[in-house]
Amino acid sequence: METIKNRYEFVLFFDVQDGNPNGDPDAGNLPRVDAETGMGLVTDVCLKRKVRNYVQIVHGHQKPNDIFIKSRTATETDLVLNDRIAEARKETKSQFENSDTNEGKKSIKKTRSEVTEDLKHTEAARQWMMKNYYDIRTFGAVMSTGENAGQVRGPVQMAFARSVIPVVALEHNITRLIPTSDEDKEKEQTMGRKYTISYGLYRAHGFISAHLANQTGFTTTDLELLWEALLNMFDHDRSAARGLMGTRALYVFKHETALGNMPAQDIFDTVKVEKTSPPDQPARAFSDFALTVDESALEGSGVSLIRKRG
Prior knowledge:
Shape: flat
Largest sheet: 8 strands, antiparallel
Strand content: 25-35%
Order of helices and strands: EEEEHHHHHEEEEEEHHEHEEE
């Protein structure tokens, strides 16, 4: 398997119906909204989490596609990041017999050769982590929180997703009839709240660097797994809070070179979305919108469009 040789950008469209795509903990878990425009927001961290979860479902804990930053559904042992960093140091320790002589003993001054060996050991651990964890060679990671395995800047980055038209956050009162404690037995019912938006179509932009892919070992196989995850991740992320969510379109733009042949913003401008339902009628379905790509703007640019969906 070889690392990717071309730069890519992609545009992802997904929608939500009667759900909360990304709650804001600073606002009582209300759906995230741009306060100035009313546009709904979904963070890049949220989208990366769904990619990680999909890869973990498909590959489990099997290396080289294990996940470094696992979800809270993992076992308590699997959640501790420093344990996996320590594993990398242990797996590569035999190459550097003297590198850990003073490890963890900051009061003892290391010789120049020991410092050099420790740096080499850190780099070896870093390479081991990239080789064995899909999300590290894809998104990058900081691995200096315990035993040091360095840092990785990932080739795949995403921006916040933003709804194409403003959304309205709704608050619903819900009730529970069964008491949760002896003190609640006399109560007829317990009240709660649930927040949703009726419908929202979201657009996210992504970037893939061939140069960073060469550094992390992000391969063509890894790239295909990323597309697979983006297309299917919502089908394995169902919950009562998120309502009906799904990927509606994925447009991939491949450059002929590693540096790229066209500015990303010009590429994104070729993708248009228009609300086709009457202006006075709120959007309630994907059929209320039309997606188009101006492929003529790409002619002779060295950038080709790959429609994964849509």
